[in-house]
Write a structure and sequence with these properties.
33% helix, four-stranded antiparallel sheet, binds adenosine-5'-diphosphate, globular, binds magnesium ion
Length: 267
């Protein structure tokens, strides 16, 4: 194995990092939200944890192009994607979900999947509207893909349900299925099981593992410690915008710096 020569806290930055973030910085009103260097290895299911306000969601916004950084670089599969638009980054294979899924008013679950490929800000192609009798090849392909995903995620019985009538857990499942419409190879999930009942949480866990087994690389933010310690390895701990610790769930769980950061976070 070769090393990149880039290090933080004495630890090797992912040697085969698919996603690499270097000194990526964002301030809000003079307060540093994120100033991080980290790597996510190809094929990994990496966790991102840290106290409230640690800068986790901001990091996702910077990496996925929803926010412009004040400084630093983002590399996706060796390509510098800093300052690219969300739709360009999505086209390169990185997609993110939101802590609070956006409401898709007036759309059924199937329709919400069909517009997913055209849903990134900056995307110039308008959503396609499906009119009986005038289905193009592209539309036929999208319809087929949506149907496959509805079945794979076991939500085909919800295909014609209005998106606004889904439970919190069902919305998270639909969000994950929607993300898969563009066939990403890196998925950033922001709190995928927050507020989800145990049955749906188990289903979501299975789906995330299945996709990871098929080669999708994950970076997952989650406050539920049992969930993240169970599903992710390694785990990166962010505190005050910076990487505090990276390691196995066991190492992170017992690290005093992590305990201190969390205790500090609630005081
Ligand atoms: P986390 O997701 O780890 O809880 P965030 O990335 O949401 O943390 O927030 C990190 C810090 O940046 C917090 O202090 C938060 O208040 C601040 N912040 C995040 N987004 C904005 C924004 N759009 N405007 C001003 N401050 C923000
Ligand atoms: Mg957050």
């Amino acid at each position: 194995m070769s090393t990149t020569g880039l290090e933080y806290d004495g630890a090797d930055l992912g040697k085969d990092a698919l996603l690499r973030v270097e000194d990526l910085r964002k301030e809000f009103g003079g307060i540093v939200a994120t100033d991080a260097t980290l790597g996510v290895e190809r094929g990994s299911l990496t966790g991102l944890i840290g106290p409230n306000g640690a800068g986790k969601s901001t990091l996702f916004n910077l990496v996925s192009g929803f926010l412009d950084p004040d400084a630093g670089r983002v590399y996706l599969d060796g390509v510098d994607v800093t300052d690219r638009r969300p739709d360009e980054i999505a086209q390169r294979g990185l997609l993110r979900t939101f802590q609070t899924p956006r409401t898709l008013e007036g759309m059924t679950v199937r329709e919400s999947l069909l517009v997913a490929p055209f849903d990134q800000p900056g995307e110039s192609i308008l959503p396609l509207y499906f009119q009986p009798g005038s289905v193009t090849d592209t539309e036929r392909e999208l319809l087929g893909r949506a149907q496959q995903l509805l079945e794979a995620f076991e939500i085909d019985h919800l295909a014609t349900t209005p998106s606004t009538e889904l439970s919190g857990g069902q919305s998270k499942l639909v969000e994950l299925a929607r993300a898969m419409m563009t066939d990403p190879y890196v998925l950033l999930l922001d709190e995928p099981v927050a507020g989800v009942n145990p049955v749906l949480e188990a289903e979501l866990t299975d789906h995330i593992r299945r996709l990871n087994d098929r080669g999708v690389t994950f970076l997952v933010i989650e406050h539920d410690m049992d969930f993240i310690m169970d599903i992710a390895d390694p785990i990166i701990v962010l505190n005050q915008g910076r990487v505090l610790v990276e390691g196995s769930p066991e190492a992170v769980r017992t690290d005093e710096r992590v305990l201190d950061a969390y205790l500090g976070g609630v005081s």
